[in-house]
Amino acid sequence: MSNAINIHQVTKTFGEGGAMVTALDKVSLTIGEGEFVVFLGPSGCGKSTLLRMIAGLSSLTAGAISIDGKPVEGRNPSVGMVFQSYTSFPWLSVAENIGFGLDLAKVESAPRDEKVARMLDRVSLGKFAQSYPSQLSGGMQQRVAIARALAVDPRILLMDEPFGALDALTRVEMQTLLLDLCAEDRKTVVFVTHDIDEAMLLADRIVVFSPHPGRIAEIIDVDIPHPRTMEQTEREDFTHLRHRLRQLLFSMAKKAA
Amino acid sequence: MNALNDTTSATGLPGGRTVIARPKWRRYFAIRKPLAGRVATSLSVAFFLLLLAVWILISGTGWVSDFFLPQPMQVLAAAWTMYTHDGFLWDVAVSIYRVLVGFCLAAAIAVPLGLLMGSVQFFRALLEPCLAFTRYMPATAFIPLLVLWLGIDDTQKFSVIFVGTFFTLCLMVMVSTLSVPIALIEAAIMLGARPGQLILRVILPAAKPSIFNDLRIVLGWAWTYIVIAEIVAASSGVGYVILNASRFMDTATIFVGILSIGCIGLISDLLFNLGGHYLFPYLQRARS
C-alpha cells in the first residue's frame, strides 16, 4: 500500500505571547492509499485543525504535510471535502449543487449531466434533483454535500464531522451509505468524529487524539473485514474495542478537568 | 366541585392532565407567531382608516383651521386639479427620473465596490475608514457646494442623490457580503473555485438577497434627498411644486406632493418585493 498522505512533525499554534494556544504539537502520521482513517478525540484536540491543514484551508506553524509526495499548498485537485455545517448553495437546485465542481472545471454538458445523474442515483436523491436545499432534511443535505464532493472524482475524501448535526437514526443511515459508496469505489478517507461507534463502524484505523496540546495518543487498527454492517459492531471484539476507546477518552477528560 | 370545574373552565385530556383555556384575544399578541393573512391585511387597512378618521375629525370639526390642515376632500380636489390640469404627473415623472438616474449611478458603483470590500480584505482596509468618514458628512450640506460646481440642472440633482446614498450603500453591501458563511466559501474552494469564481459564483449569489434589501432601503432615502435638492434649486419636480405651494400658502398642494411621494415609495417597495419573489424563489420554498 503506497502512501497517500504524509504528515511530519506538524505543529499549529493560534495567537501570540501569553495568549498562545498550541492546537497541535509535533504530530506525525502516514495514511495509505485507499485507507479509511478516523480521527477520534474530544473537542479541542486539534483533529479538525489537522484535517483543515491536509485540505490546504489552514496553514502550518511548523512541520510538513505532503500528498502523493508533493507538499500541500492550497487546494489539491485530488482532495474533496465534506463539512459539518450544511454547505449546499441555497440558490442552486440539488442537481446544480452536485454539478457545481464540474461547472467550475468547465466540463462539457453531456458528460456533466451523466455524472450528475449517476451521483444523484448513488445517494438516492433522484426524486429531489430539482428541489432547493432549503426543502431538504439535514441528512439529505449531507448526501448532496457528499455527492457534490465525489462528483469531481477526488482520490482523497476529507470529512469533518459530517454527520455530527444529524439525529441518531439518520446518522446510522448515512454511515451505511458512506460504507456502500466506499465499497463501490475505493477512496482514501480521513474522517473526523467524536463518536466512538461511528469510528469503529467506519475505520480501518482509528487515530485517537488527546487535547491540550493536541497529540496522537494511540493508533488502533480495526481488523474487521469489509463490507461492514451495524450488526457486526455488536460482536464481542467490538465490545472490547468500544470499552477501550471509552476508557481512553474518559481518562483524557479527567486529566483535562 | 372538581367535576364542575372540568366542564366549565378546563378541558380534560387523557391521562388526567388538564389545560386551562386561555382567552382567545391573546393569540393575536403571541410572540413570533404568524397571524392569518386575512387578519394581518385587515389590521393594516384598519390603521390607515384610523389615521384618516383622525384627520377628518381634526380638520372637519374646526379644531385646526384648514389653512394649516386641509380637509381630506380639499386634498383630493387639489390632487384632481394637479394631476389633470396642472401637469403634476410630469413633475412626478421628472422626480422619478432624477431619483432613478442618481440612485442607479450610486448602485452601479457601490454594489461592486462593497462586494469587493466584503470579499478581499485589501480593499476593505483601503476604503472602509474613508467611506465611514464621508458617510457622516450630511449630503444636504453638500447642496450649496454642488450648486456652485454643477449649477442647478439635473446633474446637480443626480449628484445630491449620489452623495446621499453612495457611501452608506457601499458599507451596507460590504456588511451583507461579510455575512456570507465562510463554510460556503471553503466548500467552493475545495471544489476548485478560483478567486474570481468565488466572488462571482458563490459570494455574489449568496449575498444577493440581502444586497437587494439594502437597495430597497436606500432607494427610500433617495426620495428625501431629491425633494431637498428640488426645494433648493429647481424649476420642476415634486420638491419644486411643494416649495411653490408653500409660497402661496397652499397647504392642500403640499399634502398632495407629500402623499404622492408616499405612494411612490409604497409602489417601489411592492415592486422590490415582487422582484425578490421572482429572483429568489428558493427563499420562499423553505421546508415546513
Protein described:
The complex is a heterodimer of chains A (257) and B (288). With 257 residues, chain A is an alpha/beta fold. Chain A is built from 8 helices and 10 strands. In chain A, strand 7, helix 6 and strand 8 form a beta-alpha-beta unit. The longest helix of chain A has 21 residues. Chain B has 12 helices and 2 strands; from the N terminus they run H-E-E-H-H-H-H-H-H-H-H-H-H-H. The N terminus of chain B is likely disordered. In chain B, helix 4 runs parallel beside helix 7, helix 9 runs parallel beside helix 10 and helix 10 runs antiparallel to helix 11. With 288 residues, chain B is mainly alpha-helical. Chain B has a two-stranded antiparallel sheet with strand order 1-2. The relative contact order of chain B is 0.10. In chain B, 74% of the residues lie in helices and 2% in strands. The interface between A and B is medium-sized, with 27 and 25 residues.
Keywords summarizing the entry:
heterodimer; A: 257 residues; 6-stranded mixed beta sheet; B: mainly alpha; two-stranded antiparallel sheet; flat
Brief overview:
The complex is a heterodimer of chains A (about 260) and B (about 290). With about 260 residues, chain A is an alpha/beta fold. Chain A has helices at about 45-55, 95-100, 100-105, 110-120, 140-150, 170-185, 195-200, 235-255; strands at about 5-15, 20-30, 35-40, 60-65, 70, 80, 155-160, 190-195, 205-210, 215-220.
